[in-house]
């Protein structure tokens, strides 16, 4: 083959050219300095303060959840610290009627979308009332089966499109989740149906113990959207402004009828995978922990807002105190919820009980009334 | 001999087979550096290298497909599915592919694969982590389904499963991982698949059980002894294929039987055992064969699981019905 032919046939170069297009989108750098002036979103001062408040609040919620878990008062919990920008700034770009299909770590977004905090605690405790989302709140219970929410998001988005409303479906998974077949099917279906979906992969570098490099040979997860023919972006997931802009852009395009998008947010979870026995020191060094701690989303946003005169210690203390009080009240409300019974579960199985469940209902009713 | 928990016995079995057969491979989510989320593969990557013990990307269907492909190239795979509730993600690889290869290739290809996976309730996991799905597996011709109840059995059965030339689903009860300790030989040994074990001899009633329910049944048997009943407890150990010989011999001796499973009652292993008994030994029976099982709901949210799960009191109640029939 001559040189010319070789040029026409160079799959490795095609791959490299695609991969090299995925540079990380950033607005605020680690020091809280603006590095991308043109991209600064059009958020009012109040909105900026609100976004910061939510991030600070969520950090406290995480700390309290961890200690409640350690006291045996919470149950299942997947820590969120380090992912506040990725979670809350993406959510900040949504509108009230948008649908959220969360993973198990995405409790903060659904709380800000309208799931009462006490219900979120009941979800943690393994009580079905925690999964009874109030009417009009378009939120699903956190998905446990990794990837399942991605295919369902394509379905919700197609439903939205058919109904002709100006809403979107947003769904979240992790770097590990991006390896599931459901991930590819979800983004591909949404693309094929041009459905208004936003797919977010929160790349926190690990899937339990498994590092991101083990998941895929691809240089970025964002580039996987290219194969599905959907716009895709890699963003600094520790930068709330960049995450907000990327999600807002995806939403605007979705609502205009231009179909779905994929967003990879580069972030980190500071804590263990969940509170059920994971020990991060088995698979992460303190060097990498420190490297990411230096990129903290709250630290950099604080510097930025203080520079604009929008934030100070007093404001932060107010948010922290409010968070603590609301968490206390929510736990109290969760405590007051009647214990879940097997008869409740039996009643939640079918619209009408078949004979076996009817019989079993009676057996458990007798047991439970003892 | 050393005192081992079930999880240690399982690691030990894997170590024996990795050492004795260079074609054995162990893989799955977090089984490498982390040693598995329950530490079943603790230290194995270090000892045998990443070529033999390795993490996969997060995709159960991929793990199943890998096992099929590696079988075709002469390897003996021991993949881990992190929790058996995630089996739905790999159902086609298991039921659609692994179980059928020997059959559809006219006995030319076989699948020496042992899928290990934790299952079972009582430890307050999130949804989809505790379901007992052995009935689903047992319904698929082409598979063997093994469920140990003790550390000693776990090691011998796992070694046999790995050496078996057909696919085996090897289910490890979460609650038994660390709750029972017993003497387990350090050397390699096997326990044949398809063989039940009489865990306690008795004359008045046979209790057939497997997994955690063996222990609940033993507890019930002890209680019944105080009331003067001699109760036999048979640990099925392999739920597909069943050890018909041992089951029928026991029923012919005691003339009364109950079958206990942690799984929901509908369409399960227990129903199958009852059917075999009535088909083969109806004339030996002095009472109907009853079942103890969980109610037919989805596995409960953790807050309700302790009342939902069958326990020795439920077994006692049913046993008495049969004993006094
Ligand atoms: C289908 C399925 N397989 C495996 C698991 C067990 N599991 C829970 S979380 C997790 C890792 C997920 O990693 P990632 O997608 O990166 O999300 P992160 O936890 O880091 O947010 C695994 C393997 C599961 N819940 N569902
Ligand atoms: Mg991750």
UniProtKB/TrEMBL annotation, chain A:
CDD domains: TPP_E1_PDC_ADC_BCADC. It is an enzyme of class 1 (oxidoreductase). Residues 313-340 form a coiled coil. InterPro entries: Alpha-ketoacid_DH_E1_comp, DH_E1, PdhA/BkdA, THDP-binding. Transmembrane segments: none annotated. It catalyses: N(6)-[(R)-lipoyl]-L-lysyl-[protein] + pyruvate + H(+) = N(6)-[(R)-S(8)-acetyldihydrolipoyl]-L-lysyl-[protein] + CO2. Its EC number is 1.2.4.1. The pyruvate dehydrogenase complex catalyzes the overall conversion of pyruvate to acetyl-CoA and CO(2). It contains multiple copies of three enzymatic components: pyruvate dehydrogenase (E1), dihydrolipoamide acetyltransferase (E2) and lipoamide dehydrogenase (E3). PANTHER family: 2-OXOISOVALERATE DEHYDROGENASE SUBUNIT ALPHA, MITOCHONDRIAL (PTHR43380). This is Pyruvate dehydrogenase E1 component subunit alpha. It comes from Ureibacillus sinduriensis BLB-1 = JCM 15800. The lineage of its organism: Bacteria, Bacillati, Bacillota, Bacilli, Bacillales.
Automatic annotation (TrEMBL), chain B:
Residues 4-179 form the Transketolase-like pyrimidine-binding domain. The keyword Oxidoreductase applies. Keywords: Oxidoreductase, Thiamine pyrophosphate. Pfam families: Transket_pyr, Transketolase_C. CDD domains: TPP_PYR_E1-PDHc-beta_like. GO terms for molecular function: oxidoreductase activity. Transmembrane segments: none annotated. It comes from the Bacteria. Gene3D superfamilies: 3.40.50.920, 3.40.50.970. Its cofactor is thiamine diphosphate. This is 2-oxoisovalerate dehydrogenase. It comes from Ureibacillus sinduriensis BLB-1 = JCM 15800.
């Amino acid at each position: 083959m001559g040189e010319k032919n070789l040029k026409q046939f160079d799959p490795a170069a095609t791959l490299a050219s695609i991969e090299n297009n995925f540079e990380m989108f950033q607005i605020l750098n680690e020091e809280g300095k603006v590095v991308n002036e043109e991209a600064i979103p059009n958020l009012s001062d109040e909105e900026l303060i609100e976004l910061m408040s939510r991030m600070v609040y969520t950090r406290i919620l995480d700390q309290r959840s961890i200690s409640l878990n350690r006291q045996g008062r919470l149950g299942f919990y997947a820590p969120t610290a380090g992912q506040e920008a990725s979670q809350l700034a993406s959510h900040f770009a949504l509108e009230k009627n948008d649908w959220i299909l969360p993973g198990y770590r995405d409790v903060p977004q659904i709380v800000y979308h309208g799931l009462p905090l006490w219900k979120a605690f009941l979800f943690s405790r393994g009580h079905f009332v925690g999964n009874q989302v109030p009417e009009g709140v378009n939120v699903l219970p956190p998905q446990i089966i990794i990837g399942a929410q991605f295919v369902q998001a394509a379905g919700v988005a197609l439903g939205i499109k058919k109904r002709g409303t100006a809403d979107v479906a947003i769904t979240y998974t992790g770097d590990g989740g991006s390896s599931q077949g459901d991930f590819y099917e979800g983004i591909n279906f949404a693309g094929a149906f041009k459905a208004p979906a936003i797919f977010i992969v929160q790349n926190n570098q690990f899937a339990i113990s498994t590092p991101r490099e083990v998941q895929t040979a691809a240089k970025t997860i964002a580039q996987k959207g290219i194969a599905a023919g959907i716009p895709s972006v890699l963003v600094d997931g520790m930068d709330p402004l960049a995450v907000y802009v990327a999600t807002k852009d995806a939403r605007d395009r979705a609502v205009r009828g231009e179909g779905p998008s994929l967003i990879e947010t580069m972030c980190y979870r500071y804590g263990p995978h969940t509170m059920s026995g994971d020990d991060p020191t088995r698979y992460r060094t303190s060097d990498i922990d420190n490297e990411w701690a230096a990129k903290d989303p709250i630290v950099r946003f604080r510097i930025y807002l203080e520079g604009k005169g929008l934030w100070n210690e007093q404001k932060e203390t107010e948010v922290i105190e409010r968070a603590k009080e609301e968490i206390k009240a929510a736990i109290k409300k969760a405590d007051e919820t009647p214990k879940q019974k097997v008869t409740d579960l039996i009643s939640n199985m079918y619209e009408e009980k078949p004979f076996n469940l009817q019989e079993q209902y009676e057996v458990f009713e007798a047991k439970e009334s003892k | 001999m050393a005192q081992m928990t079930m999880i240690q016995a399982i690691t030990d079995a894997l170590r024996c087979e990795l050492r004795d057969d260079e074609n054995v491979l162990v893989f799955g989510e977090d089984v490498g550096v982390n040693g598995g989320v329950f530490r079943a593969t603790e230290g194995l990557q270090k000892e045998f290298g990443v070529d033999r013990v390795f993490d996969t990307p997060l995709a159960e269907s991929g793990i199943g497909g890998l096992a099929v492909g590696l079988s075709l190239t002469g390897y003996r795979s021991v993949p881990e599915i992190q929790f058996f509730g995630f089996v739905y993600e790999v159902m086609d690889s298991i039921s659609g592919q692994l179980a059928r290869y020997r059959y559809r290739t006219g006995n030319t290809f076989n699948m020496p694969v042992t899928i290990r996976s934790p299952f079972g309730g009582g430890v307050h996991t999130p949804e989809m982590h505790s379901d007992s799905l052995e009935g689903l597996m047992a319904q698929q011709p082409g598979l063997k389904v093994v469920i140990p109840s003790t550390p000693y059995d776990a090691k011998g059965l796992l070694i046999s499963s790995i050496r078996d030339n057909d696919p085996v689903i090897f289910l490890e009860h979460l609650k038994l991982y660390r709750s029972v300790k017993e003497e387990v030989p350090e050397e390699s040994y096997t326990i044949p698949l398809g063989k039940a074990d009489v865990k306690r001899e008795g004359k008045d009633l046979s209790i057939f059980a497997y997994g955690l329910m063996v222990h609940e049944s033993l507890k019930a048997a002890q209680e019944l002894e105080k009331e003067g009943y001699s109760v036999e407890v048979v640990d099925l150990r392999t739920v597909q294929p069943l050890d018909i010989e041992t089951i029928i011999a026991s029923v012919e001796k005691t003339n009364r039987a109950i079958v206990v499973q942690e799984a929901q009652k509908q369409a399960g292993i227990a129903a199958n055992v009852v059917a075999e008994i009535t088909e083969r030994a109806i004339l030996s029976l002095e009472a109907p064969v009853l079942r103890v099982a969980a109610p037919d709901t989805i596995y409960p949210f953790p807050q309700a699981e302790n009342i939902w799960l069958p326990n020795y009191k439920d077994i006692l109640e049913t046993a008495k019905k049969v004993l006094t029939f």
